[in-house]
Every structure is written in structure tokens, then in C-alpha cells.
Design a protein that fits this description.
The protein has helices spanning about 15-25, 35-40, 90-105, 125-140, 160-170, 195-210, 230-240, 260-270, 285-290, 330-335, 345-350, 350-365, 370-395, 400-420, and strands at about 45-55, 60-70, 75-85, 110-115, 150, 220-225, 245-250, 250-255, 280-285, 295-300, 320, 340-345. It is of the alpha/beta class and about 425 residues long. Among the domains are: about 40-175, Rossmann fold, CATH 3.40.50; about 195-350, NAD(P)-binding Rossmann-like Domain (Rossmann fold, 3-Layer(aba) Sandwich). Helix 1 runs parallel beside helix 3, helix 6 (about 195-210) crosses helix 7 (about 230-240) and helix 12 crosses helix 13.
Length: about 425
């Protein structure tokens, strides 16, 4: 029998978490009060309530959001989430994190995020297509290849991106592939995009392990969340020689201290819908999984996984945040005191937006690169970002999250001061 884990959402509000992280880092910078306040607000927020025709002939009303946090560095970029627990505050936080993530990587984008309150697992393909096309139409007043470019996030995938691209293109009367990234290759997607976020996690995990003196060949790795980010991070860590000992999804986790082959787990998940019941591994709950003895922990599910309650019990030496916002500020403090290094989300999972940027550039030029070129450029940017963040953290004597935030806020505030306040 597979184990159903009762999922509890974090008590911490993601927007409050994002603001606390922002102010913690902003305290180190000589920002004028107005500039600091400006950066603490989302630029614009759109809420849409829209009807969708369901398979049984009924019409249901869904609520969706699109938030732009900042347009200082360029058009806004950020994923779209389909999940029953989506809230405006969650989307606000994710949009702000996108601003910092793009700034850390040196991309010419501001941050955005979108979400629809729905359970895609309980909807048919037809219903998902109806929902996506209507939501895309509703947010088309913000969306565009020069203004706001969505991408996949939790609960969405390349097929959803294809429907968004097609809907937008139908309204225009011609194809606009650059309006969205994370598309299938056949319609202007990029080589390497599907693996990009997990690949980026593996690259910074490797550099982080090197920095801490943890030999990758013997490192025991635990991955929470076995979706796009977590599954790829798991098999690339395995390919890099590390030993993946536990993985999980929303239904529960599996553990074998001798190691598991993540590609076989992926096959099992494709066949059965979950990682649980994978032969030759013990079942663990998601709570137990985070506290397993290991060297590297890669939380790749949702916000608020590592809190003040479980941070004292975490045994990993290095945490690589595949997910956005998996560690609360309270947990950050505890981990810092305990000497656990956290590679923050805005650096660790930036591989996705980096290759999304490559995809957008390729679409605008109608000139496509090979997978090798993409992976080489991604490798170069991730390694460079990692050492830049490390350098800043050492200079200010702060943790890597604050170091990354200091870099990001400096870049955005410098651009803001240079552009000036209109009028
Ligand atoms: P996904 O929908 O492909 O996968 C999410 C996974 O997490 C699923 O396996 C789900 O079962 C699991 N999960 C959900 N709740 C869980 C829980 N409480 N415990 C354990 N597992 C749980 O989503 P994704 O695209 O892989 O995104 C995961 C995280 O990575 C999110 O925080 C997202 O914002 C972030 N992220 C994604 C990308 C990207 O390119 N997809 C880029 C950057 C950051």
C-alpha cells in the first residue's frame, strides 16, 4: 500500500518570508528610504475570475493571478503555478524572488509570477486546455514577448506552455513563440530547457560540496519533491557520482541507505503515478525524509518545508534549494548557527530561468543552438553566479542567501537610480 501523507501548508506566509529576506539584506546597503520601499512592493497585480467549461457540461469559475514585481531591468519573467493552495501572497512572494533570481544571474528581466487555484491532477486534459486558454486570454493584457514572458512551475508543463503560446498567437494572427518559455522543442522550445533547473541545482551542489570539502563521489543525497526539478536534480547527482538515498513526492518518500537509481524511480513514477512502492526501498514520510542522515539535501517541492521546528533536526551539511522558498527565515537562523550551508533558491534553481532566457533569445532571433551549447553556457553562468555570491557573502560576512540578495538588490537599485524616478 502506498502511504498517503497528510500535506499541511506552512504556517509562514511566503510574502512575509520574502519581505523579511529582503529587509535582512537591504540593511547592509545604503539604499535611500524611497528606493527601499519601492523595491518592497509588487509593481502591479492582476486577479482574474473566469469560467471554464467542464467535461460534464457544467461551468466552473476559477481564480487566477499574475503579479509583476519589478520591470526595472527589463520585461518580467516568471512561471505559472496550478495548485489548490495558490494565494495572492504566494504569487507575490514568487514574483519578488524572480526579480532577485534574474538579477543574480545577470539576466535582463524583472520578476513576475502567475497562478491558478485548481487541482490539475483532478482535471482532464480537455478541462486543463480550456482553463489554460481562458487564463492566458485573461492575462494577455499583461503578457507579451516584450512585456511579460511566462514559463512552467508546479503543476504546469511544456504542453500547458504550448496552449498559452497558441492562444496568444491566435489573438495576434501570427505565431509568437517568444511569448512563453519551457515550450516543446517542436514549437520553438530550447534544447536543454526541460532539464535546466535540475542541472543548475546539480552544478551548484557540486561547487558547494567542493567548497565545503565534501567529496561528491561519497556524498549521500536526499531529494524532496520528484517533479521537474527534483527528479532531474536526483538523476544528475547520481550521474555525477553521488549516492541518492531518498526521494519523495506529495504521496510520501522512499529510502535506501545503499542508494537508489533515480532513473528507475522515474520509470516507476511514470507507471504508477508516485515514487512510493518503489521496490527495494523503505517508505518514509516527507517529514522523516528531511531529517535523514545525509550530506546534501535538495528540497524541490514547495515553500516552507524547512521550518523552526525541523531545522534543529536536519543532518545535511549542505542544503541546495531546488524549490522556491523552502526554508523559512527562522530556520535560516537555526541552520546558520548549526553550521549548515544553504545555497539559496535565487541561485540554486536559477538554471530554469537562465535557459528560459536562452530560449527567448533563440525565438526572437529564429536561430537555434545545440544542447551542448546550451549546457555549456548554463554551466558557465551557474558557476560564475555561485562564486560571485560566495565572494559577496564573504565580503559582508553573511550567509549565502543574504549574499545573493545583496548582489541582486544592488543590481536592481543601481539600475533604478540610473533610470531615475519618472516623472
Ligand atoms: P512539479 O509540479 O513538476 O513537481 C513538484 C513535486 O513536488 C511533485 O513531485 C509533487 O508530488 C511534489 N510535492 C508536492 N508537495 C510535496 C510535499 N509536501 N512533499 C514532498 N513532495 C511534494 O514542480 P517543479 O516545476 O519541479 O517545481 C518544484 C519547485 O521548484 C517549486 O518550488 C518551483 O517554484 C521551483 N522551481 C521550478 C522551476 C522549473 O523550471 N520548473 C524553476 C525554478 C524553481
Amino acid at each position: 500500500m502506498s502511504q498517503e501523507t497528510v500535506l499541511t501548508r506552512p504556517k509562514e506566509d511566503p510574502w512575509e518570508m520574502a519581505l523579511e529576506q529582503f529587509h535582512r539584506a537591504a540593511d547592509y546597503l545604503p539604499l535611500k528610504r524611497g528606493i527601499r520601499e519601492f523595491l518592497a512592493y509588487p509593481k502591479r497585480e492582476l486577479t482574474v475570475n473566469f469560467p471554464v467549461k467542464m467535461d460534464d457540461g457544467s461551468v466552473r469559475i476559477f481564480t487566477g493571478y499574475r503579479v509583476h514585481h519589478s520591470t526595472v531591468l527589463g520585461p518580467t519573467k516568471g512561471g505559472i503555478r496550478y495548485h489548490p493552495d495558490v494565494t495572492l501572497n504566494e504569487v507575490r512572494a514568487l514574483a519578488m524572488w524572480m526579480t532577485w533570481k534574474c538579477a543574480v544571474a545577470g539576466l535582463p528581466y524583472g520578476g513576475a509570477k502567475g497562478g491558478v487555484v485548481c487541482d490539475p491532477k483532478k482535471m482532464s486534459m480537455n478541462e486543463l486546455e480550456n482553463l489554460t486558454r481562458r487564463y492566458a486570454t485573461e492575462i494577455s493584457i499583461l503578457m507579451g514577448p516584450e512585456s511579460d514572458i511566462p514559463a512552467p512551475d508546479v503543476g504546469t508543463n511544456p504542453q500547458v506552455m504550448a496552449w498559452i503560446m497558441d492562444t496568444y498567437s491566435m489573438h495576434r494572427g501570427y505565431s509568437v513563440p517568444a511569448v512563453v518559455t519551457g515550450k516543446p522543442i517542436s514549437i520553438g522550445g530550447s534544447q536543454g530547457r526541460f532539464e535546466a533547473t535540475g542541472r543548475g541545482c546539480m552544478i551548484v551542489a557540486r561547487e558547494g560540496a567542493k567548497y565545503l570539502g565534501i567529496p561528491l563521489q561519497e556524498a549521500r543525497v536526499v531529494v524532496q519533491g520528484f517533479g521537474n526539478v527534483g527528479s532531474v536534480a536526483a538523476y544528475l547527482m547520481h550521474d555525477a557520482g553521488a549516492k541518492v538515498i531518498a526521494v519523495s513526492d506529495s504521496r510520501g518518500g522512499i529510502y535506501n541507505p545503499k542508494g537508489i537509481d533515480p532513473r528507475q524511480v522515474l520509470d516507476h513514477k511514470r507507471k504508477t503515478g508516485s515514487v512510493v512502492d518503489f521496490p527495494g526501498a523503505d517508505v518514509v514520510t516527507n517529514e522523516e525524509l528531511l531529517e535523514l542522515p545525509c550530506d546534501i539535501l535538495i528540497p524541490s517541492a514547495l515553500e516552507g518545508a524547512i521550518t523552526g521546528a525541523n531545522a534543529p533536526k536536519i543532518k545535511a551539511k549542505l542544503i541546495v534549494e531546488g524549490a522556491n522558498g523552502p526554508t523559512t527565515p527562522e530556520a535560516d537562523e537555526i541552520l546558520k548557527e548549526r553550521g549548515v550551508t544553504v545555497i539559496p533558491d535565487i541561485l540554486a534553481n536559477s538554471g530554469g530561468v537562465i535557459v528560459s532566457y536562452f530560449e527567448w533569445v533563440q525565438d526572437l532571433q529564429s536561430f537555434f543552438w545545440t544542447e551542448e551549447e546550451i549546457n555549456q553556457r548554463l554551466e558557465r553562468l551557474m558557476v560564475q553566479s555561485f562564486y560571485h555570491v560566495l565572494e559577496t557573502a564573504e565580503k559582508y560576512k553573511v550567509d549565502l542567501r543574504t549574499g545573493a540578495m545583496i548582489r541582486a538588490i544592488s543590481r536592481v537599485s543601481d539600475a533604478l537610480m540610473t533610470r531615475g524616478i519618472y516623472p
